[in-house]
Design a protein that fits this description.
The protein is α/β, with parallel strands linked by helices and about 700 residues long. It has 21 helices and 23 strands. About 60% of the residues are buried.
Length: about 700
């Protein structure tokens, strides 16, 4: 059913409601209206990387890991998996009268905020720091979730609109100030792309943007509905409307806050401020027309989902949850997301030459480090240790030592400091090679209130691992055995001297509940790593020279505006092949490139095209990503690839926030950025086209 038809049905239904009934439907936990045959519905549901918080579901890599695949087709397929499993679970739960939170079909995903500062704890929920990559991956996930049939399979939500990326500790009172140029160039493009793709919902952020709270902003609603033509529904972040009078101090009472949000187009209140809506009506702060307008938008969505009249999706069985096909896609995503940051030839490990492998580290056997935040429950978990044990079987002895606590100075409360290091040293000494698994998890980087890190906010204070892990790395590397560091984290980490001392470094992000299997397959050479960094990895000391965390100007931030060489650049990642772009030429649609693999391993690669408007005062400081494509390149072979480039990506944004043709457009095709650091790390330069 199209939106016009659904809206007509919704309008007719809402007209039959009393104003009290209509107002009740604007809560996230909308109650049943029995006299009209309307069941209860809970709008709060999560599917950031698989159906979350609703019991068993297929677990994908965290969103930042999905971004590292640079594979929109795969992300779209994963969106369909989430929608299918969401339908299967909704069908089963509703048959038992269970219409609880997290069990509906309006998923508050994806998060398309820009990961502008490496300290932001929620950055791993995003698709990275680049607007083009974020937009393409976000659009793909939306299309996968919603489908393209007569009935939406599920409803996606673009969040958090619009200028939102920390600090977490200040989000309930913070005002993010962004210029018109930065808004149009960085913070808005991904949201615009998702609206153009038909995303059903948009969620407002907690903070203010340029003075107005995002869930009650006339300026943001004008952009969203008038300029972009958004027709779906708008939802507040959870308890964000309460912040109007308790944090932002733009209103004095809950009634005024509810009225401001409703007036400025917020249809669903995640929180409890809309329980004051009828009082706001009594006080003349809102009108019945406003309340019914939002109710119509919400029932339009429910009709489009087939929840009011049934649909072909009602027959999706529970057996689709964690089915073989879905698990295979999640496994493929885990394989594609891993980024090889360093390799002196130690990887892949030669199983035939190993008698004993040491596996050490606080994340080696951690389930928490597999899943990131906003996760579902898996019926099985495969840690890195378990993946290696399964892959090596009885042929190679695997010794394990935890080595240290994730962040405390001891693992046992009654133990002495570093109470697990002696065991780790013993394991290393008795092994032919060592896999050292370190990093973070959702308890050290995440959302305000959900974490226990030093800042008590979810954000990081620096880019270093906890001291306990730094001491462990120093001790194990000093043993002198061939050592591979496996880094499990959702953001930029500087391993310090350990980077130079280790033989190889493999970044796995949070690879999903069974991600240890993919990590083992990469370490042992069954598959080649092929992920690319969707964020810049900075040196820790660069933080001191970056703008303040609270400064939303882009100068000095991300690969487009960075002013000094990073630790690892955006777009970088090694493989077990030896690939380079050997030729490239402009076409009418964009660029055609040839990728050659001179190595002995088949591998995927990601061809990337960057643009720079030479002579333009409005262009970003450095070339920007305008096209990319993942390709399979056989050992000793070559592949031609077409990379279309929309004309708008070759334009620049001026100070007024307008796209303009300016300067001479230079294009660069390669397997990473056209910068000196990428060339030094890979040995290959991008080709100027």
């Amino acid at each position: 059913m199209n939106r016009e038809q659904a809206s007509a049905k919704a309008r007719a239904l809402v007209e039959r409601m009393t104003i009290e009934e209509a107002a009740s439907q604007l809560r996230y936990d909308a109650p049943a209206i029995e006299r009209l045959g309307i069941p209860a519905y809970n709008w709060w549901n999560e599917a950031l990387h698989g159906v979350a918080r609703a019991g068993t579901a297929t677990s994908f890599p965290q969103a930042i890991g999905l971004a590292a695949t640079f594979d929109p087709a795969l992300v779209r397929a994963l969106g369909d998996v989430a929608a299918t499993e969401g339908r299967a679970k909704y069908n089963a739960a509703s048959r038992h009268g269970d219409r609880d939170i997290y069990k509906g079909l309006t998923f508050w995903s994806p998060n398309v905020n820009i990961f502008r500062d490496p300290r932001w704890g929620r950055g791993h929920e995003t698709y990275g720091e680049d607007p083009t990559l974020t937009g393409e991956m976000g659009v793909s996930y939306v299309k996968g979730l919603q489908g393209e049939g007569e009935v939406m399979k599920a409803a996606a939500c673009a969040k958090h609109f619009a200028v939102h990326s920390g600090p977490e500790a200040l989000r309930h009172q913070f005002n993010a100030e962004a210029s018109k140029k930065d808004m149009a160039e960085t913070y808005l493009p991904a949201f615009h792309a998702l609206v153009d793709a038909g995303v059903e919902a948009v969620m407002g952020a907690y903070n203010r943007t340029n003075g107005e709270p995002c869930c009650g902003s006339a300026q943001l609603q004008k952009i969203l509905r008038e300029e972009w033509g958004f027709e779906g529904h708008f939802v507040s972040d959870c308890w964000a409307i309460r912040d109007f009078h308790t944090g932002h101090m733009v209103t004095d009472t809950p009634e005024q806050s509810a009225a401001l949000a409703l007036k400025e187009g917020c249809d669903v209140n995640c929180g409890n401020t809309y329980v004051y809506m009828l009082k706001a009506l009594e006080q003349g702060l809102v009108t019945e027309e406003m309340i019914r307008r939002s109710a119509v938008r919400l029932f339009t969505c429910r009709y489009m989902l087939g929840l009011m009249e049934g649909s072909e999706f009602d027959g999706i069985p529970y057996e689709k949850v964690e089915c073989r096909e879905h698990l295979a896609l999640a496994g493929r995503a885990a394989e594609e997301c891993c980024v090889l940051l360093k390799n002196d030839g130690t990887l892949p490990l030669n199983k035939g030459k190993l008698k004993t492998l040491g596996v050490i580290g606080p994340n080696a056997d951690s389930r928490v480090a597999l899943i990131g935040n906003y996760h579902g429950t898996s019926s099985r978990y495969v840690t890195v240790l378990e993946g290696l044990q399964d892959a090596l079987g009885d042929d190679v002895r695997v010794l394990y030592g935890q080595g240290c606590h994730l962040f405390r100075d001891r693992d046992e409360n009654l133990g002495q400091p570093d109470d697990r290091i002696a065991e780790a040293l013993t394991v290393a000494e008795r092994s032919d090679a060592v896999v050292l698994v370190v990093g973070l998890d959702e308890t050290l980087e995440g959302e305000e209130g959900d974490t226990g890190n030093a800042a008590a906010s979810g954000d990081k204070l620096d880019l270093l691992l906890p001291e306990s892990q730094r001491r462990l790395m120093d001790a194990v590397l000093a043993v002198g055995k061939p050592t591979v560091i496996v880094l499990m984290a959702g953001s930029a980490i500087d391993l310090g001297a350990a980077t130079d001392r280790a033989n190889a470094v493999l970044l796995t992000w949070y690879p999903g509940a069974r991600g240890g299997r993919a990590v083992a397959d990469i370490l042992l050479g069954k598959i080649s790593p092929s992920g690319k960094l969707p964020v810049t990895f900075y040196h820790n000391d660069q933080l001191a020279r970056m703008p303040e965390f609270t400064d939303y100007a882009m100068k000095g931030r991300t690969y487009r505006y960075i002013e000094e060489a990073p630790l690892y650049p955006f777009g970088y990642g090694l493989t077990y092949g030896d690939c380079r772009v050997s030729a490239a030429a402009r076409t009418a649609e964009g660029v055609e490139a040839t990728v050659k693999n001179a190595g002995a391993a088949d591998t995927d690669e990601v061809v990337q095209v960057y643009a720079q408007n030479e002579g333009s005062d409005n262009a970003p400081r450095n070339p920007r990503l305008v096209a990319f494509k993942r390709v399979r390149v056989p050992a000793g072979g070559a592949v031609k690839v077409e990379l279309p480039i929309p004309a708008s990506r070759l334009m620049v944004v001026n100070g007024a926030g307008e796209l303009v043709d300016e300067g001479t457009v230079a294009l660069y095709a390669g397997l990473g950025q056209p910068d000196a650091r990428t060339e030094a790390l890979t040995g290959h330069a991008a080709i100027r086209v």
